[in-house]
Amino acid sequence: MQKLLIVCLLVLAVAIPTVMCSPKKPDVSVKDLLTYNKWRNTHQRVYLNEHEQLFRQLIFFENLAKVNQHNQNGNATYTIGLNKFSDFTHEEFKHIILNKKLGTRGQRLLQDTDGEDNSNTNDNNNQNNTNSTIAASIDWRNVNNVLNPVKDQGQCGSCWTFGAAGVMESFNAITNGVLKSFSEQQLVDCVHQAGFNSDGCNGGFQSDGVEYAIKFGIVTEDQYPYTAVGGDCQITDPTSDGFYPKSYKKLQQTADDLKSGLNFSPVTVSVDASNWSSYESGIFDNCGETTEQQLNHAVIAVGYDTDGNWIIRNSWSTSWGEDGYMRLAAGNTCGVLLDTLIVTA
Description:
With 345 residues, the chain is an alpha+beta fold. 33% of the residues lie in helices and 11% in strands.
């Protein structure tokens, strides 16, 4: 994984030369240096040469200054902190980690004269209420054997596979009483080769992952382990021992519809996560008005509190956020209501 990070950053050094020259030399204290050394040891950062080390160190100090400045704001509803992205520039984070394809679906919707997304042929698409009863709050983390431990997509834009696999895992657990960990790597390797638009680490759509599983089945992570890089598909025919969902649907773009879906099972949602890299705790509200063209990350909504704030499960490991989770402000914050999907059978 560390080697892959270095390769990705080298590619960006060529692809985004202005970014590579951007860090300004900040005022650095002894405390800052100690913080950097501790962070580097924790995350086991090894750089190619002294130039790369200095460049990453400057980025780290810039990000550290932003952390300190933000957390001194007594009016902020959330805190930010240091994590595995703290030596990334903002552009690198978006280029390496986020999903470059999700927003293209919104662009196609703008260009479609009737306003319908015809790319999905599932008969259950865009149905209304999943569950007519809406609880005041719900948190699937408090229900045994519905959610697997938080996973880590690594330096691969495969969030869509974690969104798809995650909702299939939870649906299977709720319906059949068995919690399995399904293979994101199978979706990374096989979905594009099966003729779908999604393209492994280059980004994709949760609906493609579920539709693929409907046709070919999805095996467990033990059978097809995650590597965080794309490869040749190891399953070319429908598998005899995989899980086969039968149908899914997309929810309407309202808070009540998402809450209704969450009363049935966890829901995979698309968001604009451009400002999420340093999130540590609290209720995140730093997105502005989000359109479908700005969606760039797939996550799983696992509940909401009595104030309507969403509980979001990410795929950036437990070292990010609140043990891998985020509390997202109520309403359509970060576009959370714009692209939602739930497995129904």
